[in-house]
């Protein structure tokens, strides 16, 4: 999901969220118009969303703090895994937000009914949690960036290592 080292941009998340919104709204509207009850919106859904959000930010913060030291292969692998988690959360959050916004759009015309109003509010809360998860994914992705940010610029430590390795390989006859 990296584009020239810049990471995941907002375009794929917006597209995924818009598709989820469209599919959710059309599907739930069709479902309710054919006489079926809408699936309930459960507040309990908020627990795993917030749990993943917190775990993602904690892991990304740890990567951010360990970037300052020497990069070891195990640390680099962990940072890569956290980066992939951050990008997955950005997309998942957008899809969750789209799904629950579609649910809210389906419930909105009947919002004068007390039970439907409660479900509408819950759907909006869960959509906000999806947006928060997506934003947290982008923040975590930014925390996982190498110092310097620009993939074309390499920090001095890498340049020194390259110069040192070049001298050694020439001396070794490689």
How would you explain this protein's 3D organization?
By secondary structure, the chain is mainly alpha-helical. It has five helices and no strands. Helix 2 packs parallel to helix 4. The longest helix is centred in the middle third of the chain and has 35 residues. It is elongated and about 60 Å long. The relative contact order is 0.16. About 5% of the residues have low confidence.
What brief labels describe this structure?
mainly alpha, elongated
List strands and helices in order, with pairings.
Blueprint: H1 10-33, H2 46-66, H3 73-107, H4 114-143, H5 156-172
Could you state the order of secondary-structure elements as H and E?
HHHHH
Which secondary-structure class do the elements indicate?
A: mainly alpha
Q: Please, what is the average pLDDT?
A: 83
- How does the major sheet shape up? none
Helix content: over 70%
Query: In total, how many beta strands?
Result: 0
Quickly count the helices. Answer: 5
* pLDDT < 50 runs, ≥5 residues: 150-157
Give the count of structural domains. 1
Strand content: under 5%
Which shape, going by the Cα principal axes? elongated
Terminal residue distance: 35 Å
- Rg estimate, integer Å: 22 Å
Describe what is shown at a glance.
This protein is an all-alpha fold.
């Amino acid at each position: 999901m990296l584009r020239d080292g810049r990471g995941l941009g907002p375009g794929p998340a917006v597209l995924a969220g818009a598709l989820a919104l469209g599919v959710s709204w059309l599907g739930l509207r069709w479902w309710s118009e054919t006489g079926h009850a809408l699936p309930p919106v459960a507040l309990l859904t908020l627990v795993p969303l917030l749990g993943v959000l917190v775990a993602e930010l904690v892991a990304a913060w740890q990567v951010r703090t360990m970037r300052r030291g020497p990069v070891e292969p195990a640390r680099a692998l962990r940072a890569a895994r956290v980066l992939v988690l951050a990008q997955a959360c950005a997309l998942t959050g957008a899809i969750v937000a789209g799904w629950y916004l579609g649910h809210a759009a389906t419930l909105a015309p009947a919002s004068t009914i007390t039970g439907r109003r409660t479900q509408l509010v819950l759907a909006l809360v869960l959509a906000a949690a999806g947006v928060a998860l997506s934003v947290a994914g982008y923040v975590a992705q930014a925390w996982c960036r190498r110092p310097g940010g620009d993939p074309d610029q390499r920090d001095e430590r890498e340049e020194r290592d390259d110069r040192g390795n070049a001298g050694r390989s020439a001396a070794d006859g490689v």
